[in-house]
Amino acid sequence: MDQRDGFSNKFGVIAAAAGSAIGLGNIWRFPYVLGQNGGGAFLLIYLFFIVAIGVPVLLSELLIGRKAQQGVFGAFRVLAPGFKFFKIVGVMGVGAAFLILSFYAVVAGWTIEYTVLATANQLGDKSPAELATLFSDFSSSFWRPLFYMVVFMALTAAIVMGGVKNGIEKYSKILMPLLLLIIIVLCINSVTLDGAMQGLSFLFKPDFSKINSDVILEALGQAFFSLSLGMGIIATYGSYVQKKENLLQTAVSVSFADTLIAVLAGVAIFPAVFAFGIKPDAGPGLVFVTLPNIFNQMMGGYFFAVGFFILLFIAALTSSVSLLEVVVAYITEELKLKRKKATIIGAFLITVFGIFCVAYPVLFTSFEWTTSNILLPLSGILITIFVGWFLGKKQTRAELESHGSKIRMIGLLMLILKIFAPIAIALVFLNNLNLI
Ligand code: PFF
What we know:
Elements lengths: L9 H12 L2 H13 L3 H29 L3 H8 L7 H33 L8 H13 L2 H20 L5 H24 L4 H9 L8 H14 L6 H6 L8 H29 L10 H12 L3 H34 L4 H21 L1 H40 L9 H23 L4
Bound molecules: 4-fluoro-L-phenylalanine.
């Protein structure tokens, strides 16, 4: 994304932002984190955070980027000269992108392994117990996960070097709706399994006794992770949005698409979890253990399995490209290296961290936890404070209305950005640390 040529139309922006947002976070992470955090109660809090904090932060990032016509580092320099402090948002974003990609690439590698297994028809003849063993043997081994992780990082680097927009975003406009279609077919098959009701009520019937400070923090972290917030990715896309576009509508559409995919993934997975006697809190392997069971029960399951894992892999790729882009933009802008060199160095260092994630699951888990639950929401506080207090109502309104029609509810939006979002995020942190 060297050239600031602008997206040709609204669909271009939505597709690019959704390409970053929709990924493993929706299909791999959302169901397993929900499964570990009490089901329906988690879903309810998650949805609340998406609407009350996710959409406003997404909107703020788009707004900052478009107003400044710069990526995240430059944006704060242009909009708040003299307040060097806000540079920290960019710095935290780069750190988070680096750490996220190092575990994200490992999981993306699993999708390659599962594409290979599905294609070779090695999932088709297995019982639920055998599928569980298959996953745990594979994910706790070293060389194969490592190999696929490296392959995935090499592909990500190749795409970032070649330019994002011309290549895979064009394809993802066709492929992502296809992924949605497969998920819907999976949902239909899943809810018709024996014992599906139990899964649906786990997902949709909140058990309020399950709510505690961990559940709340996980829901907040997942909202940031899933919408790709807190690291300037969306701000960079915002800088390519034309003034005639309605930013609020864009923010709502992206958030809606992202949430829809996550909830549908839940509908596909939980009925099957209960039908096949899998534990909902099985952890990061949940999707990889559950879905093959549904494929095995379906007509044409072989083809759906192959198609699904390929598309999941592509969804992961469109997200990882946006993550590597943040790191590369930092290296080119701050260290003044050429793009190609920056990509190779960035991808290489992330791969090294990825190797540690493969070897030490505790690192994998702690990178995942710290980035989504701490770094991203912390940037979120600063982003909302920046738009709420520094830009203020007049500038915010002017930018949001640049397409020529009035935005309603600006008062509510400012209230959220100035007061509600920063305080709510801070309270979630403090509560989780047992400080309140
Ligand atoms: N939002 C992506 C997903 O849900 O898979 C993951 C991700 C991409 C997180 C980019 C953060 C980010 F900046």
